[in-house]
C-alpha cells in the first residue's frame, strides 16, 4: 500500500488499511503482515501492528521492517 505524498496525512491510508483488515477478517484471515518502510513504522504502530526483528534494506528503496497484526 502506498499513498502519494500529496495525499498523505489525510487519513486515506487508515481508511484503506481498515477496509482491507475487515475484508481479510471476514474471509477467515487471522494474521496480516507487511514490509513497512522505516518512515511508515509509526503509522503501522498507531494501527496496532508490531515490528518483528531488525530493519533490512531493500535496494533502491531503503530500510524496512516486517510488521504484523493479529486480526
Describe the secondary structure blueprint for this structure.
Layout: H1 12-26, E1 31-37, H2 41-46, E2 50-58, E3 62-70
Antiparallel strand pairs: 1-3, 2-3
Report on the structure:
The protein has 71 residues and is an alpha+beta fold. It has a domain at 30-71. 30% of the residues lie in helices and 35% in strands. It has two helices and three strands. A three-stranded antiparallel sheet has the order 1-3-2. The radius of gyration is 13 Å and the shape is globular.
Oligomer: single chain
How much β-strand is present in the residues? 35-45%
Helix content: 25-40%
Strand order of the largest sheet: 1-3-2
Number of helices: 2
The geometry reads as globular
Order of helices and strands: HEHEE
Enumerate the spans where pLDDT stays under 50 for 5 or more consecutive residues.
none
Helical/strand content category: alpha+beta
> Rg to the nearest angstrom?
13 Å
Alpha carbon gap, first and last residue: 18 Å
Largest sheet: number of strands, sense, barrel closure:
3 strands, antiparallel
> Could you tell me the number of beta strands?
3
Mean pLDDT: 96
Amino acid at each position: 500500500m502506498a499513498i502519494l505524498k500529496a495525499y498523505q496525512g489525510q487519513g486515506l491510508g487508515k481508511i484503506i488499511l481498515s477496509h482491507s483488515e475487515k475484508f481479510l477478517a471476514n474471509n477467515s484471515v487471522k494474521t496480516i503482515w507487511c514490509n513497512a518502510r522505516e518512515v511508515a513504522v509509526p503509522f503501522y504502530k498507531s494501527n496496532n501492528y508490531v515490528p518483528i526483528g531488525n530493519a533490512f534494506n531493500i535496494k533502491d528503496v531503503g530500510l524496512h521492517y516486517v510488521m504484523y497484526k493479529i486480526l
